[in-house]
Amino acid sequence: MLHYYTLLAKKHQYFLFFLTNSIKIPTFAKSFASLKKEVSNYFTPTINNTKNLNHMKISHIEHIGIAVPDLEKAIAYYETVLGLKCYKKEVVEDQKVTTAFIKVGDTKIELLEATSPESTIAKFIEKNGGRGGMHHIAFAVEDGVANALAESEEKGVKLIDKAPRGGADGLQIAFLHPKSTEAVLTELCEDPNK
Q1: Same domain for 66 and 126
Q2: Are the CB atoms for 67 and 119 separated by under 8 Å?
Q3: I need a surface site. Which of 94, 107, 151, 173 has the fewest CB within 10 A?
């Protein structure tokens, strides 16, 4: 094991220096499994104890957001190959996207195409080698997005949105940061008309 640490120290000196000085791990004295656990604990956000806290009321998966480089091509795939139907397209100016909705049972698929290179969708597609992919999952909350955000923040979840905002399909929405949601961008939604 000492040989592994020596090799690791030579190749990743700066990283180990950061770890040993920031979280006080005596690197050469710990086993690899112990070191790995310490590192994981340091970089994984802590979710506060939830035993005595309220839980948001999620009724269903509202939609699955899929980033696409070409909206018309994506719609054609869902309609021609899968036999589904796009029932609505909408430009969401403040998010710099055009969306298309496809219903599958009670759940929607939201296809998202960037309308600007500065949009989060354009950046996501660029990071994904120019291809689209699953961008986020959205849950419908019955007790309101504002309440769900407050509950999430109380539990130690990092928020992208501090307050609900208008989204596509007439919904009030807010996002939770993937660093706190097991690496999945999570959207909370409510229909203000219900």
Answers
A1: yes
A2: no
A3: 94
Domain CATH code at residue 79: 3.10.180.10
pTM metric for this prediction? 0.73
Question: Can you give the residue range of the structural domain that contains 11?
Answer: 2-43
Q: For the sheet with 172-176, list strands across it.
A: 86-92, 97-104, 107-114, 58-67, 133-141, 186-190, 172-176, 165-166
Answer yes or no: do 161 and 73 share one domain. yes
- Can you tell me which residue has the tokens 């409510």? 190
Provide the β-strand partners of residue 173.
165, 189
Burial class (CB in 10 A: 0-12, 13-18, 19+), 189: buried
Whether residues 66 and 132 share a domain: the answer is yes
* Residue positions counted in the chain: 194
pLDDT, tens digit, for every residue of 116-147?
Answer: 999 999 999 999 999 999 999 999 999 899 99
In contact, 19 and 25? CB cutoff 8 Å: yes
Domain count, the chain: 2
CA distances from 118 to 96, 129, 162, 177, 179 (A): 8, 16, 21, 19, 22
pLDDT in tens, 85-94: 999 999 999 9
3-state helix, strand, coil in the chain (%, to 5): 40, 30, 35
